[in-house]
Design brief:
Elements lengths: L1 E2 L5 E2 L10 H25 L1 H24 L27 H20 L6 H12 L3 E2 H8 L3 H13 L3 E6 L2 E9 L1 H21 L5 H15 L7
Antiparallel strand pairs: 1-2, 3-5, 4-5
């Protein structure tokens, strides 16, 4: 073992100039020891040095205390920022457009439907298809698509889904082996029997701000609008 200039014990394996951790911490310990010895010397024999160090220490303490006093105490509620109030949105001529108002009503209607009938895991469109099939036993997919007003391919996807859920049965049409007749299954009829009371309650609640006369008038006008002359493509 060899002693280095710092009076530290150095192993022979470190003769190549390496700087081991024990030597680093030794230097740190030596520096702290020298600092404490210098501080004691100032306190005992050098009043001017003591005054200078005391002044610096007081400056640091004053800075710390100032920051602590300006900081909000623990548990102090934060001051809420004033809520931003946006100016009213202008709609231009949208308020005068029937299509815009019908769309708004439809969105509110679907949201209310999903809130009240979410436990049935169905949609207004699927419910309408099942009701149409139940009311028209043996209806073909072509006639159903025409009555509902959707594409045959889209209807085929719904019918396939109903079959997987055992709600609808597809049987061969009498006299036409190329087409199928749709029938509501026993399980599908039981499903409708559970859903229809909730659907009626949903519609009653949705139009609760209207009188019975207003609701009847609205229903007749919407039916008249839906059954109007066909759209020319």
């Amino acid at each position: 073992m060899v002693r280095d200039p710092d009076n530290m014990v150095r192993s022979p394996s470190c003769q190549s100039g390496c700087y081991p951790l024990w030597q680093f911490f030794g230097r740190v310990r030596f520096g702290l020891f020298e600092f404490l010895r210098w501080t004691n010397r100032c306190l005992e024999s050098e009043p001017a040095c003591v005054r200078e160090n005391d002044r610096r220490l007081r400056l640091v303490l004053d800075m710390i205390s100032t920051r602590m006093t300006t900081r909000k105490p623990a548990g102090h509620p934060r001051q809420k920022k004033p809520k931003r109030i946006d100016p009213p949105t202008r709609k231009g001529i949208l308020d005068q457009l029937l299509g815009y108002q019908i769309r708004r009503a439809q969105m509110r209607f679907f949201a209310h439907f999903n809130e009240r009938l979410h436990h049935h895991h169905t949609t207004p469109g699927q419910m309408g298809l099942l009701m149409m099939i139940a009311a028209n036993p043996g209806i073909s997919q072509v006639a159903l698509a025409r009555a509902i007003g959707i594409e045959r391919a889209t209807l085929g996807e719904f019918v396939a889904k109903f079959e997987r859920q055992h709600l609808v049965e597809r049987r061969g049409a009498i006299g036409d082996k190329r087409s199928y007749a749709l029938h509501i299954s026993k399980q599908g009829q039981e499903f409708l029997d559970r859903c229809i009371p909730d659907v009626l309650a949903h519609e009653t609640d949705f139009t609760s701000h209207m009188t019975a006369s207003e609701r009847a008038t609205l229903l007749s006008l919407v039916i008249k609008l839906a059954d109007g002359p066909p759209v020319v493509e």
